[in-house]
Structure prediction request, 63 residues.
Amino acid sequence: ILAKTTRDALMEQLDALHPGYGFARHKGYPTPEHLAALERLGPCPIHRRGFAPVRRLLAPGLL
Prediction:
């Protein structure tokens, strides 16, 4: 529980650093809101490059 609480607090801080993605609401999970923000804004530095939607956005010619 402590790890989840800590991670949720971190995601709220990251929401302030990277507005528009909604990290404070979805906590980084691949919700429709998060996926729409990725499409609209592209990935930010904290997005995992191995996350399939991010990988597709970074290399669209490979699919």
